[in-house]
Design a protein that fits this description.
Structural class of chain B: alpha+beta
Helix content of chain A: 25-40%
Number of helices of chain A: 12
Strand content of chain B: 15-25%
Radius of gyration of chain A: 19 Å
Number of strands of chain A: 13
Largest sheet of chain B: 7 strands, mixed
Shape of chain B: globular
Mean pLDDT of chain B: 94
Distance between the termini of chain B: 65 Å
Strand order of the largest sheet of chain B: 3-5-1-12-9-10-11
Mean pLDDT of chain A: 88
Helix content of chain B: 25-40%
Oligomer: heterodimer
Largest interface: A-B, 24 and 29 residues
Order of helices and strands of chain A: EHEHEEEHHHHHEEHHEEEEEHHHE
């Protein structure tokens, strides 16, 4: 099979029109798409619509209490822009992506569009209830939760362009805490086998009012909230009152692939890791090993 | 001699400046006018039959030529035993089916993709088996798939008597995995047709002579028509011996057919497919000892997996057999090893060459025996380790060599506080178990020995030539290759020290098959040990000639002259002197070019007494020894092991360059750690599944132990240059076993296979009841 045709639109409108072509797909940093095409050339899209020249997709800007990350921004651009309102766990998750060369090339929108569970960006985005700005030729713009986008059928995703990622206002401190923990075989340059993003809203009485837990990694089939585990956590003490059955509930709810071996132990380790981070760094943080 | 010794001094690498500035020229950096780009189609099957339709591919724009097996003379098989291009049946997924030359890399790749392949899969054998299985047998008329000449035995005493005199007998099975080299630079070759049917090849190969011979043989031209010049090579570790030569053959076929220069560069997936892997071993060990821990007998039954062709398997098996009993005094030894074909990747030469596998087997078993007898791992080794005057498993009495393993082991034990830390970890782990804490620690020891050079495996011959130019500068040529290991620097230091000139005066020339006779493979850790001795001999020859010319010129007897820092000086009258350049010029104008040449063709004292049938005799002239102590931490919930410390002690004889020697050991630790904990090439129906760096994980810099401690243990050994012994391969060999033994303490399990992945470790812990998860 021949190499794909790469098209270079000059405007977002042109890009939206080009992607209407049968089998066409958007192409940003190319990290995921290149791997896919290399592994399975037969299933590679025949037309790649490059978003590389579209500057309006890049940048990081505050909007009210929220933060909007341009979908065409690379990991490095976001990290270097040091936005004040970027939740610490998201910053740390971005830093764990690949190596510097990959962070210089890969884009946030590309990662979300790829939607692979092992991508570090996704669990924190879903746990933070981030939303996506989407555009499609001939339709009104829409803004939907990242979690909903990840559940969308691939064919519906294909013609929708992610233009921005909207992160809810992050205050950190005593009433809102977050942490990201990842489990890998290697210390660096290794996508997680399992990862856990946790966001906790703390009520006036000092107990967990709202919990968001999202598992990611190679061993989960898709990125989604763990609602049973969240319900179990709500009402607990954020520092030392996590229910002992959390790990079992989380592991059961996640329906881990390859549950033999250390799956349960890793979930336990992840939970202890995020709990420790939340205690030590009330503003939130991330961790790995 | 120079005032400041050149040998045993940590001089910067002679090729270091060019490399760190990005100016070193690798094969793919070379461009020539009119160059075509090659492409190769590899088998889509691990085992099966294939038929090709090349009509469309041949007609594509930019395609200059396309070659399949049908275009080659029959048989087109090289010394690799593997067909140059497969036609009909394929035996592993690294076999090439078609070659293309085109005007651009893209056009070549598109043409390769356009070749129609009708593939009919046949059952794949992914594990070697003693008995041939229906449908997967390699030879229809035989009842097994044993690789020819791959059986070796080592026998000493009577195993039955040893078992009878043993009060404790332990048996265990061990297994090692298929490991990929993952050198940073993949295989590549540039072949340029020249006048009179000659070919100039510049290629990333480990042994240019072998590549040249293979090309000549396949093309049906005299070997002198093929000149191979080696550019900078980005790593090989044994792997490019075979795969590098294959790529040269493929590019040469395309160049011969088109009459144009052809560059062929493999991508990572192709490199992983075609290159040789570390032989997976299955081992059954039995060891017997007295109640006091004195070894009486060791038996080993080993199967190695040679993959589809197993060209190197007989050689790997020989070394594995000789080393299978370890550096212990054992009165009765019975080792038997056989190689078998499989449809997995082709196995071949890989740093260690069979030793890391058997060291893992014997050293983990030694810890198991110690535990059974209530001895510490150090104590069981103390009671059995080789020493001067002892005999090896092959019956080689070690009376002329240095045998410092006991002293080395004691030094390392003291340096690490081995016994105290092991006891401490035992207590800590017990407390953690009782308290339900997940953290564990372990410390493990492994000792090893390695025969230096080829030994009795084959003639250990090599040569060197030094020529002094009229300005006093010196060119050094050998047939041994610099692949990143630092050989050029070591050779330059040996030459400079022997001659009494500055290191900067010596230029080590790249290997060029037209300039030097074939000095044998740069393998078996013989570059410094064997090649360095040839350099030393050539330098002595040159020095003698230089002093003779100076003596005539100064009218002083040659034996009154010395050469220091590039100046010839009279010992009795230090005012009488001549610069070496001045001497060289005098020599030139008197028609006596200053050339030192030496050919070393015998290392053992006299011929070896190796008895192939009995598996006994002097296997190597001398041995290098190692003691590696590793510390690990383990989280029993996750099964993940972190290597915290590695203390590697190596008997180097004398380090020609201590900085380079340490570098070899650091690299060896990283490689050994990968084999111990994470590296394994997985196959499905014979196809490698994790064929790139995103799926095949090698340790990164961040995975290295926070503390790496290297001890270069020096001893006076009579064989190598300046007493130097081998190091390159020994640097990695005992690391997996020491880490495995450390994991065994931390997890309270016996590690019986590599790599120790978290999943595997959790499974073992579950079986033994160790709490996790």
């Amino acid at each position: 099979m021949d190499r794909p045709v790469v098209k270079h639109p000059r405007t977002i409108g042109e890009a939206l029109r080009m992607v209407q072509e049968p089998g066409a797909c958007f192409y940003a940093g190319g990290i995921e798409l290149h791997l896919w095409a290399r592994r399975d050339p037969g299933s590679s899209p025949p037309v790649w619509v490059s978003l590389a020249g579209l500057r309006e997709l890049c940048g990081v800007r505050p909007e009210g209490t929220e933060l909007v990350l341009g979908a065409g921004s690379t990991y490095s651009q976001v990290l270097e822009s040091r936005p004040d309102r970027l939740p610490p766990m998201l910053r740390e998750a971005l830093g764990w992506v690949g190596c510097e060369a990959i962070r210089n090339q890969g884009t946030l929108g590309g990662a979300v569009a790829a939607g692979a569970p092992f991508l570090d960006l996704l669990p924190p985005l879903v746990a933070l209830e981030a939303r996506l700005h989407l555009l499609r030729e001939g339709e009104d713009p829409e803004t939907i939760p990242v979690a909903d986008y990840l559940l969308m059928a691939p064919d519906r995703r294909r013609t929708r362009l992610i233009t921005g990622i909207r992160i809810p206002g992050w205050t950190g401190g005593g009433d809102c805490r977050c942490a990201y923990q990842r489990y890998t075989l290697r210390t660096a340059m290794d996508p997680p086998r399992l990862s856990l993003a946790v966001v906790l809203g703390i009520g006036g009485e000092g107990r967990i009012r709202q919990a968001r837990l999202v598992l990611g990694g190679h061993r989960v089939s898709g990125i989604r909230r763990m609602e049973q585990a969240e319900a179990l956590l709500e009402g607990s003490d954020p520092v030392d009152g996590w229910p002992p059955q959390m790990a079992a509930v989380l592991a059961g709810e996640a329906e881990l692939r390859d549950p033999d071996g250390c799956g349960m132990g890793v979930v336990q380790w992840l939970l202890e890791g995020v709990q420790t981070r939340i205690q030590k760094e009330p503003g939130g943080g991330g961790g790995t090993r | 001699m120079a005032d400041r010794p050149v040998v045993n001094d940590p001089r910067p690498r002679v090729d270091g400046r060019a490399k760190v500035r990005g100016r070193a020229q690798y094969t793919d950096d070379i461009r020539v006018p009119g160059m075509l780009h090659g492409g190769v189609l590899l088998s889509p099957l691990g085992h099966g039959t294939v038929a090709l339709d090349v009509t469309a591919a041949s007609r594509r724009d930019g395609v200059a030529c396309l070659i399949t097996a049908a275009d080659l003379p029959d048989p087109s098989v090289t010394w690799l035993k593997q067909p140059v291009l497969a036609g009909g049946t394929v035996r592993f997924a690294g076999e090439a089916l078609a070659l293309v030359a085109a005007v651009s890399p893209g056009a070549a790749a598109a043409a390769v993709r356009s070749v129609g392949v009708r593939a009919r899969p046949l059952p794949c054998r992914e594990e070697p088996a003693k008995t041939a299985q229906k449908g997967t047998a390699f030879f229809g008329d035989r009842d097994d798939d044993r690789i020819e000449d791959s059986h070796w035995g080592v026998r000493k005493g009577e195993a039955a008597a040893g078992l009878a005199s043993s009060e404790v007998v332990l048996s265990a099975r061990r297994r090692t995995q298929c490991v990929e080299h993952m050198y940073l630079e993949t295989e590549r070759a540039l072949v340029v047709p020249q006048d009179e049917g000659r070919l100039l090849i510049q290629a990333s190969v480990q042994h240019p002579y072998l590549a040249g011979e293979a090309v000549a043989s396949v093309l049906g031209i005299p070997q002198q028509k093929v000149r191979v010049v080696q550019p900078t090579v980005g790593g090989s570790f044994g792997g490019k011996l075979e795969s590098g030569s294959l790529v040269c053959i493929w590019a040469a076929l395309l160049a011969q057919r088109t009459g144009r220069p052809v560059s062929l560069v493999l991508d990572r997936e192709q490199s992983v497919r075609i290159s040789a892997k570390r032989h997976p071993f299955r081992m059954e060990y039995t060891v017997g000892a007295t109640a006091g821990g004195v070894l009486q007998v060791l038996q080993a039954r080993i199967q190695s997996d040679g993959g589809g062709y197993g060209f190197e398997t007989p050689f790997v098996n020989w070394r594995a057999a000789v080393h299978a009993a370890g550096c212990y005094q054992i009165p009765h030894v019975d080792v038997s090893i056989d190689g078998y074909y499989s449809h997995r990747s082709r196995s071949g030469a890989f740093r260690g060459f069979g030793s890391p596998q058997v060291i893992f087997g014997q050293e983990t078993l030694m810890d198991q025996l110690a535990a059974h007898l209530g001895l510490s791992p150090l104590e069981i080794r103390r009671r059995n380790v080789l020493e001067k005057g002892a005999t090896t498993a092959t019956g080689h009495r070690l009376d002329t060599q240095s045998v410092p393993i006991r002293a080395l082991m004691e030094t390392m034990a003291e340096r690490t506080g081995f016994e105290a830390r092991r006891a401490l970890f035992e207590e800590e782990n017990e407390r953690a178990r009782r308290g339900g804490s997940p953290g564990r620690r372990g410390i493990g020891i492994a000792i090893s020995f390695r025969g230096c050079g080829f030994g009795a495996e084959s003639p250990d011959a090599t040569g060197a030539m030094l020529s002094m130019r009229p300005d006093g500068s010196i060119s050094l040529r050998t047939g041994l290759t610099e692949m990143g290991q630092g050989l050029a620097t070591a050779h330059a230091q040996i030459a400079a020290e022997t001659l009494g000139v500055g290191l900067e005066q010596v230029q080590v020339e790249t290997v060029d098959t037209a300039m030097m006779p074939d000095g044998g493979l740069t393998v078996a850790s013989r570059g410094t040990f064997t090649g360095g001795r040839a350099v030393w001999m050539a330098a002595r020859d040159l020095r003698e000639k230089l002093l003779t010319v100076a003596a005539t010129s100064l009218e002083i007897p040659a034996d009154d002259l010395d050469l220091r820092d590039g100046v010839v000086i009279s010992r009795s009258d230090r005012t009488r002197r001549m610069g070496s350049g001045e001497v060289a010029e005098k020599a030139y104008w008197s028609g006596q070019p200053l050339v030192g040449y030496a050919w070393l063709n015998r290392f053992l004292d006299g011929s070896t007494d190796w008895d192939r049938d009995a598996g006994s005799g002097r296997a190597y002239p001398t041995y290098t020894y190692a003691c590696v102590i590793s510390e690990v931490s383990l989280d029993v919930r996750t099964g993940r092991v972190r290597v915290e410390r590695v203390h590697a002690g190596h008997d180097v004889g004398r380090a020609i360059n201590p900085a380079l020697a340490r570098g070899q050991v650091y690299g060896g630790i990283a490689m050994g750690m990968g084999m111990a904990l994470m590296e394994e090439l997985h196959h499905r129906e014979g196809i490698p599944q994790n064929d790139n760096l995103d799926r095949y994980r090698i340790p990164t810099a961040e995975d290295q132990a926070p503390e790496l401690d290297v001890t270069l243990f020096e001893s006076d050994d009579p064989f190598g240059p300046f007493h130097a012994k081998s190091l390159g391969e020994a640097a990695c060999e005992a690391v997996p076993a020491s880490i495995a033994n450390a994991v065994s303490q931390a997890a309270s399990v016996w590690v019986d296979s590599l790599p120790v992945t978290p999943e595997k470790l959790c499974g073992w812990m579950e079986q033994t009841g160790e709490e996790h998860g």
